[in-house]
Known about the structure:
Layout: E1 2-8, H1 14-29, E2 34-38, H2 43-55, E3 61-67, H3 70-74, E4 83-87, H4 98-109, E5 112-116, H5 125-135, E6 139-142, H6 156-163
Parallel strand pairs: 1-2, 1-5, 2-3, 3-4, 5-6
Helix pairs in contact: 1-2, 4-5
Amino acid sequence: MKTICFFGHHYDNDFIVKHRLLETVKSYLEKEEINFLIVTHGNFDNIAYEVCKNLKQNYKCKITVVYTSFSFLKHKPTYPNFVNTLIYEIENVYYKDRINFSNKKMIDESDIVITYVNTKNDTSGAYKAFKYALKNNKILINLYRRDDEIFSNLSLEEIKQRFSNY
């Protein structure tokens, strides 16, 4: 069983990112059972969780949501019974470093890292995770495309209309 984790920047259009993510994840699930490691802090994380949860209906996979702080446990969302949860040993990690620490642990445990990272944003945690995955020779799939910026602030209907002739 392979393990896949996810990291990404905020973006403006769910439709494009969700489609790329769905197709990428599905291509791996068609080959074998997958263990997904997911945090749920940002837009991309939440889309990854939703895509994996929906694919679980038709594919054999395991979903593990990783908590990155003790305060998150206090307000723990309810997940379906097929979702596992995990928190790494972070009590001795400075509180501002806990997300990066957890990201590195997830990457260490993963075979594949799927990201949505604009590599020009070199101060973000997602970018740091991207660089760490590269440095550790992980299979790294970046779903970000520079052309995505032209879709900023367009509705789903406007995007479909632009692609209707293709």
